[in-house]
């Protein structure tokens, strides 16, 4: 039976097991041999990383062709207007590809969200807002690139869901095993 692990990856941790200079990696957090991330989060992103020892399951979770929904809480700089939200909902031209349409809505700060260490930069004259953004792909820095193109630079990015799995109940750095069913 495949092993599946859900990890709440803290800010600053590289989404790999191999050493990388002084930067912390998943090896410090998940002492389980033979598991690998099914999709990645950048070091400056936080939240849910799904790890598995099953290559087929890993491909099914990570490959954009399978259209598994991924949910993000995104703190952006600025106030999202109707045009910016509609651009995200339609799909954004990122040069080498146009994103699939996204589900996006403005939300309050997510309940139970932990403080980021280090905190995001605060600028008194520029307001921020939170978005719930859900996509069915997940290419390199896609959410950050989408919001920037819509005129809403990302300040903080937390993935809270991948398909049927969520980070509910996990504090940063904590992990748990889950049923490996899609």
Please name the CATH topology of the largest domain. Alpha-Beta Plaits
Counting DSSP H or I runs of 4 or more residues, the number of helices is 3
The CATH level-2 architecture of the largest domain is identified as 2-Layer Sandwich
Computed Rg:
16 Å
What are the secondary-structure elements, in order, as H or E? EEEHEHEEHEEE
Helix amount: 10-25%
Low-confidence stretches: none
Instruction: Give the name of the CATH superfamily of the largest domain.
Output: Alpha-L RNA-binding motif
Which structural class do the helices and strands define?
Answer: alpha+beta
**How many strands in all?**
9
Main β-sheet: number of strands, strand sense, barrel status? 9 strands, mixed
Q: Quickly name the level 1 CATH class of the largest domain.
A: Alpha Beta
Shape: globular
Mean pLDDT: 93
- Provide the number of structural domains: 2
- End-to-end separation in angstroms reads 14 Å
Strand content range: 25-35%
Describe what you observe in this structure.
With 182 residues, the chain is α+β, with helices and mostly antiparallel strands. It has two domains: 4-64 and 164-177, 2-Layer Sandwich (Alpha-Beta Plaits), CATH 3.30.70; 69-162, Alpha-L RNA-binding motif (Alpha-Beta Plaits, 2-Layer Sandwich), CATH 3.30.70.1560. 14% of the residues lie in helices and 27% in strands. It contains three helices and nine strands; from the N terminus they run E-E-E-H-E-H-E-E-H-E-E-E. It has helices at residues 55-62, 82-90, 142-149; strands spanning 4-9, 36-37, 46-52, 70-77, 103-107, 128-135, 154-162, 165-166, 175-177. Strands 1, 2, 3, 4, 5, 6, 7, 8 and 9 form a nine-stranded mixed beta sheet that branches. The longest helix has 9 residues, at 82-90.
